[in-house]
């Protein structure tokens, strides 16, 4: 087909494919039907249907984290985009590249103020780095290529392209060739000498985030720590962290503000590579928002959008650590079999025992999972994905995207019952796509983290009405039944022995499997 015979929707699909976008997480409507038709007869694009738009945007986030390539979403007008905003917020905070295609009314229809007319660009801007509305079929391909280019800007950006339906059905579409990915920004070489000088003992901290947490970059950080005596930590929330036996292990800045203040108090000098200076997730009465000690010297060597590998290489060379054996390499450490009722400590041990080699762990366990990180540092090598934006309902959609990106790797999704209810529709897409995901739902029947937050903000002795607003009983959620209704095999466990057996069953299957873990 020549360019002159294309409509705008066809040029969009061809351009996305030409630019390396090969997956579309979709929940289309009437205004997107020509794009659907183009996907139908143009080979090469994998289309994954989801039942709620936040599953689409979260899946695109997970796909980018594991593939390093942007996927597209296909969303229906402003309300469809609005449904996906929560996980676009998380994707933006994680530095994930996403190309949103959002249908719009035909240009001749917008003036009529039909029921679904809305300010799509206004909805998109807070959760996008790049927003554009296509003006006509001849420019669809060019706009799509520039959207992909924007999504590739390091560490990854959210790009939203609004596609009026007449630009999709009109003829005159033109495919645009691939653009070279944008190079990351240079690190601040002017701060290199100061950073190297600052890292001179146990009162110094090298704080890492973003791409600094790859296996090879962590090894360089371990060399620097061994040479200088500095300590290593990562941010609390990390888009992707390589962990397990044989890799350099880094702890995380704790989430609870009092514990974080205690952990960070010793450090007089902090060097940042890919991380921000630590702050509290929320403000609390009478507590500081800045978590570092007063007067701490904080040196930013490289922000998250910079070339973090080059920054670590340069710091390694400047500190004379290039030939030093790395410190903090995790040794194999598999806990003993656990017995009896499940609690937070033995739950962490069971997970550490069962993580398979090269697994992807998607974590939204919030309060339940605070013991997971230390317990699993010596487990089999694995990749750990955190929620970087704090908007709940992230885990199951991100697990969809990770499993699509890495079909040869096991995916474990760890989430609380309150969080999972936000995007439970993801189970249906897992079943439809036969994705290799083992899901653990931690059923404590409450928004447990918010009970702690009541105390943190100064509310003492909350009454039954307050507790009731944070509870998920009356009625209890029946996870096994919900999963099976969406085509996912499931079981319920109440003790450590059956939990470990259930995880092994799920991991042995090539399809999704859900475990309701009663706590």
Automatic annotation (TrEMBL):
The keyword Transferase applies. Residues 381-517 form the Thiamine pyrophosphate enzyme TPP-binding domain. One of its GO terms (biological process) is small molecule metabolic process. GO terms for molecular function: acetolactate synthase activity; flavin adenine dinucleotide binding; magnesium ion binding; thiamine pyrophosphate binding. SUPFAM superfamilies: Thiamin diphosphate-binding fold (THDP-binding). Transmembrane segments: none annotated. PROSITE patterns: TPP_ENZYMES. Keywords: Thiamine pyrophosphate, Transferase. Residues 6-110 form the Thiamine pyrophosphate enzyme N-terminal TPP-binding domain. It holds the Pfam family TPP_enzyme_N. Belongs to the TPP enzyme family. This is Acetolactate synthase large subunit.
């Amino acid at each position: 087909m020549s360019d002159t015979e294309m409509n705008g929707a066809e040029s969009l699909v061809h351009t996305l494919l030409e630019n390396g976008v090969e997956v579309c997480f979709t929940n289309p409507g009437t205004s997107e039907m020509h794009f659907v038709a183009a996907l139908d007869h143009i080979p090469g694009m994998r289309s994954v249907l989801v039942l709620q738009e936040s599953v689409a945007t979260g899946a695109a986030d997970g796909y980018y984290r594991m593939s390093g390539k942007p996927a597209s979403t296909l969303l229906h007008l402003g309300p469809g985009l609005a449904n996906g905003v929560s996980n676009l917020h998380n994707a933006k905070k994680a530095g994930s590249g996403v190309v949103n295609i959002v249908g719009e009314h035909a240009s001749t229809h917008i003036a009529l103020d039909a029921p679904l007319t809305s300010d799509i660009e206004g909805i998109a801007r807070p959760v996008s780095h790049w927003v554009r509305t296509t003006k006509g079929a001849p420019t669809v391909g060019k706009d799509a290529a520039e959207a992909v280019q924007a999504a590739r800007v390091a560490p990854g950006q959210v790009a939203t392209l609004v596609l009026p339906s007449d630009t999709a059905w009109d003829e005159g579409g033109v495919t645009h060739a691939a653009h070279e990915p944008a190079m990351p920004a240079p690190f601040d070489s002017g701060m290199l000498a100061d950073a190297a000088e600052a890292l001179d003992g146990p009162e110094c901290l090298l704080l890492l985030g973003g791409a600094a947490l790859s296996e090879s970059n962590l090894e360089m950080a371990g060399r620097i720590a061994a040479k200088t005596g500095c300590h290593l930590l990562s941010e609390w929330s990390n888009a992707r962290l390589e962990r397990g036996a044989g890799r350099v292990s880094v702890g995380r800045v704790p989430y609870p503000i009092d514990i974080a203040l205690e952990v960070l108090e010793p450090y007089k000098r902090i060097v940042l590579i890919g991380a921000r200076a630590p702050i509290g997730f929320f403000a609390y009465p009478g507590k500081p928002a800045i978590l570092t000690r007063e007067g701490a010297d904080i040196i930013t060597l490289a922000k998250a959008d910079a070339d973090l590998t080059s920054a670590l290489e340069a710091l390694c060379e400047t500190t004379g650590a290039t030939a030093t054996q790395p410190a903090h390499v995790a040794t194999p450490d598999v806990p003993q079999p656990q017995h009896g009722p499940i609690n937070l400590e033995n739950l962490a041990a069971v997970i550490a025992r069962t993580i398979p080699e090269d697994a992807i762990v998607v974590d939204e366990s919030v309060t339940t999972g605070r013991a997971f990180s230390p317990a699993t540092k010596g487990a089999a090598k694995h990749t750990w994905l955190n929620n970087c934006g704090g908007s709940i309902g992230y885990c199951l959609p991100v697990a969809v995207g990770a499993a699509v990106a890495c079909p040869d790797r096991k995916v474990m999704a760890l989430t609380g019952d309150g969080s999972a209810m936000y995007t439970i529709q993801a189970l249906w897409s897992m079943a439809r796509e036969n994705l290799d995901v083992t899901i653990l739902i931690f059923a404590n029947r409450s928004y447990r983290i918010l009970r702690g937050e009541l105390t943190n903000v100064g509310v003492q002795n909350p009454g039954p009405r307050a507790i009731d607003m944070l509870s998920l009983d009356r009625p209890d959620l029946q996870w096994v039944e919900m999963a099976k209704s969406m085509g996912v095999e499931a079981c319920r466990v109440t003790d450590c022995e059956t939990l470990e057996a259930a995880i092994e069953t799920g991991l042995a299957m090539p399809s999704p499997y859900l475990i309701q873990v009663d706590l």
